[in-house]
Amino acid sequence: MNTEHINADNFNSACFCISLDDQALARSMAEGLGNASLLDLVRDRLPSMFSARPVVLAAEQVQRMARLITALESVVALPAYREEVLSRSDPIARHPTRAQSVFMGYDFHVHAGHQDPGDFGLIEVNTNAGGALLNAMLARAQRACCPEIENWVPTAAQADALEAAFVAMFQNEWRLCQASRPLQTVAIIDTLPAQQYLYPEFLLFQNLFQRHGLKAFIADPAQLVWRDQRLWCDGVALDLVYNRLTDFALSEPAHAHVREAYLQDAVVLTPHPQAHALLADKRNLALLCHAPTLQAMGVPADTQAVLLEGIPQTEVVTPNNAERFWAQRKGYFFKPFAGYGGKAAYRGDKLTHRVWDEIKSGGYIAQAWVAPGERTISAGESGQVLKFDVRNYVYGGHVQSLAARLYQGQTTNFRTPGGGFAPVYVGP
Fold it and tell me: What fold characterizes domain 313-368?
């Protein structure tokens, strides 16, 4: 059958072939880690990280996501928007920087081939979105599970190009801020990094940087020292910090040295606090889907239309509207302003009175519920159906790659057998 005749919805509900080549993934990960002995660590740490089933999306849906991302970032560039958002953000978000921030994650609920407005929505935007390099490894381990998708499986050259683009992105962050000399040293930082679920990805990045001639560290912020107007790690002065912390304003005492180095422009920090404030604070979605606000900011009509059609109705929960949202809770998802990874996020129909008391006390948005896509991963009457969302990895407003996340439950969790990251193939 010609791929032009494949319906994306039918593929996701009726194709049970396996596209993941486990042996190829093992080879890819071993090469990426630079140490085959670390492969067991990856297998133990990430048992449900990769799904064996791909997800197919219609090209029109992929283009629609890209249009919304472009529209949103055009609004973020407007002085009126920036003034509105930064005025309510932590003061560090107003620190000027030329860095654009690596790996912005735009997460969508999107049904494979539908064009129904109720089947599409930007769920959230994240800084330091994890998984991009893991998905590059996954791309190297794909095989055509059937002739119909043979032309969709990424080639080795495409996987190489994606990894090269990631390195070029970090190099560009450096050039934007410090063009006088080449980038030499990088630190990947997170709290207790070896205990983080995505620690294997930190190892992959470290090896990727090293293969491109950079000295690379993986460090807890407590290992970093601010001295002589430089940030140091193990006696080496750092040029750039790849920031995987979820303390987005660097307000915790343990991050004081990183904060000072950033404020003194002694290190290039990416992602940085301003990017989180402008893009990832969940309150922003309430601005971006409110027509009067967009009009007041001077957003062009065609840009408004894209945003209003693609961002689910979102409001900040306040004492004035709390009673209304409790009554209508089954139609909403509730998320904290600075939430990430599904933490403290709740589907309205699952709320208890105790949790609702926390939500209505402040710090939450209510977002109209948009159903996630579905991927059937086994046949028969008892065939298992998993939900999926689609993450767009974005730099400088351009989509670098796509990945689906298959799961059960309220939010993505990487604990569902058969779930995890899945490649996205783009159909006609």
Answer: Dna Ligase; domain 1 (3.30.1490)
